[in-house]
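Minutes, structural biology subgroup

Action item carried over from last meeting: produce the structure token record for MFS transporter (Thermococcus profundus). EB confirmed the sequence was re-checked against the source entry. Recorded below for completeness.
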Amino acid sequence: MRWSEIPRDAKAYMIYHTLIAPGLITWTLFPLYLMMTGYSILEVGAFFTVVNIASIPLTYIFGRLFNRWDIKKGLIAIDILDGIAYVMYGLAKGAIAPLMLFGGKLIDKLSTLLYPLYQAYEQVIYPEDKYEEIFAWHLRLPEIATLVSFPIMGYLLGYVYNKPKHYRLTFLFFGLFSVVTVTYLWLFLPSVGKEERISPEGFTFKAGEFKRLIAFETLLALAWGLAPEFILINYVVFVLHKTVFELTLIAVACSLMRITGTYASERVPKGRGFHAIAVGMFLNAFYALVMAFAPPFWLALVVYAIGDFGNALWFPFYRSWLFKLIPKEKTTEFHAAISSYRRVLGLITPLLAGFLASLHPTLPYGASLGGFIAAGLFLLWIAKRK
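Output recorded by EB:
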């Protein structure tokens, strides 16, 4: 699919994700900031676990409400909440710092309760007969923004402005930048209310197929949940004694391979989507296996990039599979239910990951290895049945 063939509204939505991509560096900076200011790896894991517990029931409630409300307003709410959270991180100084960090993270987590709205919006706004092709572009454009912005920010925050106070200023900047993204959403994205979400004639909900998707979700959530990003941050910065710059180099290598993976996904023959997802799982298993052996930095960079090539390869086919099983009039409710299910699975994984890393920095990767292998084998079984 050429860029010129993509509908205007879908292009506007992709450009929005390109605008917010540089701000995702805050996802790396926040756990690193906690560790730099005295939190242990086990305490960081416990911190994320406590916040996850509070969010489970609210995710599904919000999803049901947005079955009737305009989804675009939910996307605007996400950016407003993120902006408030980042400003609170930036003001986390002195005696009030722990309160501001925890309060900011709770607000940040509140915004993630609305993240299923992204998938719901995509299901409606993207052409139904072009899901696989359009998700290649959906991945590609934000990765280009990451390639340009992350090395610059990583170098500055790693070697020039590398004190906690500089990280607080970075949080403040991205908090205020949310004014730009909220304005863009309001002006350029179309509304998607109840009337835009009507399933096409002939749609049949396939309960058995949906159960298989949930089984795959279980394996995938456990595999990724047992080796979250703060495990990589701890290993690179506090074991290998690198900086946030090296973390952004890994992110850049991953972006390059994700972009390459989008082109590879476009060359997967029709009807081979489940095989592509399985191959992606086995590439993730390879990354987890190598990381479990505590590799040097250059090898960690390589295997993370290989794993993300696998992610880009399987992502369009997974999203297409997911969207074809969900009725449009219930899209926000279904995506929120799946998200809540992931959160239930993620109740203990951050704490468990932190505990395993306190025993050995790369032990969490060994735990996630089995999940990726099982997920790959499961997808091959599904492909064989079809």
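Discussion: Residues 206-385 form a domain with the Growth Hormone; Chain: A; fold (CATH 1.20.1250.20).
Next step: EB to file the record with the rest of the batch.
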